TrEMBL record:
Domain notes: Contains large globular domains required for ATP hydrolysis at each terminus and a third globular domain forming a flexible hinge near the middle of the molecule. These domains are separated by coiled-coil structures.
UniProt subcellular location: Cytoplasm
Annotated function: Required for chromosome condensation and partitioning.
Family per similarity comment: Belongs to the SMC family.
Oligomeric and partner information: Homodimer.
Organism: Paroceanicella profunda
Whole-protein coverage range: 1 to 183 of 1150
Lineage: Bacteria, Pseudomonadati, Pseudomonadota, Alphaproteobacteria, Rhodobacterales
UniProt binding sites for ATP: 32-39
Protein's name in the database: Chromosome partition protein Smc
Amino acid sequence: MEFTKLRLTGFKSFVDPTELNIARGLTGVVGPNGCGKSNLLEALRWVMGENRPTAMRGAGMEDVIFAGASSRPARNYAEVTLTIDNTERRAPAAFNTADQIEVIRRITRDAGSVFKTNGREARARDVQMLFADASTGSHSPALVRQGQISELINARPKARRRILEEAAGISGLYQRRHEAELK
Ligand code: ATP
Ligand code: MG
């Protein structure tokens, strides 16, 4: 599964619709302090189902919505769309007929957030599982947050094992087993 496009509207500092084409290979984001580099990475995490406000550097989930600036009023919603290439059929079986997958997450003030995959409403869980199997989830070690390297160095063995499992792409398996055991 390759990410090909990220689109943001009203997400943190990206108040106007912003579209980024993601080329194959390594992508670097450069720019002056405060220009929104970390916000971009958070948008990627968020659309993949991240539900911890702290991972988005906020107190509540609605903090991802553009909060306004001296010259612009606040927004009522934030939306992020991630386009994924599925021509190699790496996504779960439900997407077997789709060459392309579009995941949309939208949060509206006082109404919470909704997900859509290829136009159909989806549960947060489905979206998280879609990425968990491809080891690209919102907790993926492929996304390295500022300060995370030092956290990793100081991590306890159990926490470090979780990171390795995620990297190996087997954490989705554990989550499904856990869900099966609860049933
Ligand atoms: P650095 O190089 O210092 O790490 P950065 O490029 O990673 O900077 P970000 O942390 O992504 O920058 O962006 C910070 C900017 O985003 C700040 O100006 C902050 O005010 C703005 N911002 C964050 N959340 C919101 C929000 N909800 N509404 C409006 N602006 C926001
Ligand atoms: Mg930053």
